[in-house]
Fold this sequence. Notes:
The complex is a heterotrimer of chains A (about 350), B (about 190) and C (about 150).
Chain A: H1 2-25, H2 35-41, H3 43-53, E1 55-56, H4 58-67, H5 72-83, E2 88-91, E3 101-106, H6 157-161, H7 191-199, H8 203-214, E4 222-236, E5 245-261, E6 270-279, H9 283-295, H10 312-318, H11 321-329, H12 336-354
Antiparallel strand pairs in A: 3-4, 4-5, 5-6
Chain B: H1 12-28, E1 34-35, H2 47-56, E2 63-65, H3 73-80, E3 84-85, E4 93-96, H4 101-104, E5 121-125, E6 128-138, E7 146-151, H5 157-166, E8 173-178, E9 181-185, E10 190-193
Parallel strand pairs in B: 2-3, 2-4, 4-5, 5-8
Antiparallel strand pairs in B: 1-9, 6-7, 6-10, 8-9
Chain C: H1 7-19, H2 23-32, E1 39-55, E2 62-77, E3 82-88, H3 92-104, H4 111-139, H5 145-151
Antiparallel strand pairs in C: 1-2, 2-3
Amino acid sequence: MAYVAVKGGEQAIDAAHAWLAEERRGDTSSPALSVAQIQDQLGRSVDRVMAEGSLYDRQLAALAIKQAQGDLIEAAFLLRAYRTTLPRFAHSKPVETAAMTIERRISAIFKDLPGGQVLGPTYDYTHRLLDFGLLEDEAPPSGALTAEADAAAMPRVPDILGQEGLLEPDLASDREPGDLTREPLSFPAERDVRLQALARGDEGFVLGMGYSTQRGYGSSHPFAGEIRMGEVSVEIEPAELGFAIDIGDLVLTECQMVTRFKGSKTVPPQFTRGYGLVFGFGERKAMAMALVDRAMRAEELGEDVTAPAQDVEFVLYHSDNIEATGFVEHLKLPHYVDFQSELQNVRRMRAEAEA
Amino acid sequence: MMSALTPGFAEPVSGAQACFRLVLDAMARPGQVHALGGVAAPAPLCDAAAAVVLTLLDHETPLWLDPEAEAAKAWIAFHTGAPITVDPARSMFALALSQSVMESWHGLPPGTDEAPETSATVILQVVSLTTGTDFVLEGPGMRAPETLTVDGLPPDFAAIWRRNHAQYPRGIDLILCAGNQIAALPRSVAVRKG
Amino acid sequence: MTDRVPVETRRQRWMAILARAPAEGLMTLLNEAGGAPEYTVLRGPEGGLVMVRGRAGGGGAPFNLGEMTVTRCTVRLDSGLVGHAYVAGREPRRAELAALVDALMQDPERAETVEARVIAPLEACQAARRTERAGKAASTRVQFFAMQTMRT
C-alpha cells in the first residue's frame, strides 16, 4: 500500500513546486523583481539573511530572498545549505572594529565622546508614519548630505572609558576559537562558541531573550556603551604568501553594553560588558546579542543563574532558527504509524477506564 | 616571486570528484586496485599519491609529511592549504614515501572509541601494486578473502597491521599508492601474508 | 612608491586595491597599460569561504563570526613570475585579473606603467567612494553646541 502513496506523492510534489514557482512570480503584468533590486533596495533583509545564514554575500542573500518569496528564515536556510558545498580556504585575522569606517556610531553613556555621535542612515528619528509617497515611483532623493569628510578619530568607547580602570578590560588571547560549523555544540560552552551561536541566532529569539533580561529575568541594568556600524576590512594570511593580505570589506554592526557589577571575591566593583557583533546593519540584533552575552556570563562572574537568558544551554539550544524550523516543522511529516499506536493506546485506556 | 609551482588537477572539480569516488570505492572494497589520473605529480610523488592528496586535504587537515617528500612540500601546501606539521600526534593525514612511516605510526592519532573518525589516514607511496608480496585480506567489503600484491611494505607488515586492526573501532586507515594506482586498507580489514 | 618601502608592504597595498576592483574596470585599465601577457593558471579561479573572526568585546579572545564567499586564483607568467589573488565575492574573472596584475606588478619592466595606469586610478576611485560615504556620515554627526550654549 505504501508504494501507491509514494507514487501519488511524487506527482503532487511536482505540481506543488510548479504552483510555487507560479506564486513566486506573481502577477506577470508587473515586472519581475531582479536580484540586484533586492540587494540594493531591501538591504536590511539582505543583512538579516546573511547574519542568520552565517554567510556574507549580498548577492547570494538577495537571490535566496527572491527564491524564498521573502521568507527570511527559508532564505537563511538556503544560504546555510549553499555554504556546505564550498571549501574553506582560511580563517581571517580577527577584524579590527576599532578601525571601522564609521557610518553610524552612537553612545548612550558618553555625550561628547571623541569623534562625536554619528547617526548614519537610521530609522530612529522617523515618525513611523507610512510614507504614501513610496506608493508612486520615487524621485531620487536629493540629500542634505553636504558635509566634508573629516578624519576624526573614532576610538571605541571601552578604549576611552577603560583608562580609569572602572570598566572590565578585554583579555586578549590567541586561543583557537571553537567552531559550531565543525564541532557540534557541547557544554559547558565557552564564550567564543556562545558569541558565534548568538551572531547566527534568530533575531527574534535573541531579541526576546535580551528583552527578558531588562524586564527582570536576570538582574541587570545595561547601558548602550557604544553602537557602531560601518565597513571593516578582512585580512587573511595565505601560507603561499607568508604575509597578511586584505581581501575586501564587510559591513558590520558592533554593540558594547555596559552593566554595573557589584564585584566578587576576586574582582572589585566595576562595569562589566556584553558584546554584540553581527553581519550587516543589524543594530537591534547586535544590541540584543550584547544583552544575552552578558546574561550568559552570570556563572563566570559568580552571579546566580536564575533566568532563562542566563541559562547557556537553554539559550544556545534554541537560538538557531534553522534547527528550530527543522524540528518544529518535522511534525508535519508522516507520523501515521506512530499515531496508529497512540490511537490503540488511547482506545485501550478508554476501554479500561470504562470497564 | 619566481616559482617552479605546477598546476594541480587539470580539471580541478571533476578531477577531485573522480578521485574521491575511487578512494571511496577502494575503501569500500579493500584489496581492489583502481587507476586514476588527471594530475601531473611533482617529484617525488607518484600521480596517485598526488591526486589523493589534492582530493582529501584542505587547510583544516594537518599533514605529517615524510622528510623524503620535502621537494613536494610547497606544491602540497599551495594546492591544499594543509598545515604541514612535524608532530604526528597533531596530524589527520600522513604522507609517506617509504615504509619508514611504520616506525612513527604509533605517534599518529588512532581516534577514540567515542570518535573513531578522528584517527589519521596514511597515504603511503609504494613501489608497485601489481608485483611484490601477496597479502590476504578479510573483512567488511569482501565476500571472500582477497589477495593484494604490494611491493614496498615492510617484511613484518602483517604483524604491524594486526596491532592496528586489534584497536578497532580505533585505528589508522591506509591508502597505498603506486604510479597511477591506488588500493586501500581500512582499519576494519584483517591482513595475513599470502 | 619608493624602493625604501619593503616589497611586502608595497604588495599588500596593491593587492588590497585589486581585491576591491571590478572585473570590467580592471580589464579596461589593463588594456590601457599594455594588455595581458601570456600566462598559465596554476590554481583556480575557484570559489570558497573564509571564516571571519571577531574578538569578544572587540579586543578579547577571538571567536568565529560567520563565513564570507571568496574567490582565489594564482597565475604564472611565462617569465616565471607568480601572481596571487584572494578577493571577496564570487567572480572568477575578477580574481584571475587581480592575480595577473599582481604578477605584472612584480615585473620591473611593467610595474611602473601598471602602477600608473591600473593601480593608481583604482586607488583614487576607491578613495573617492570612501570619502563620499565619510562625508555622508559626517553630515549626520550631532552638533551639541545649542545645549552647551544654554548651560553657560
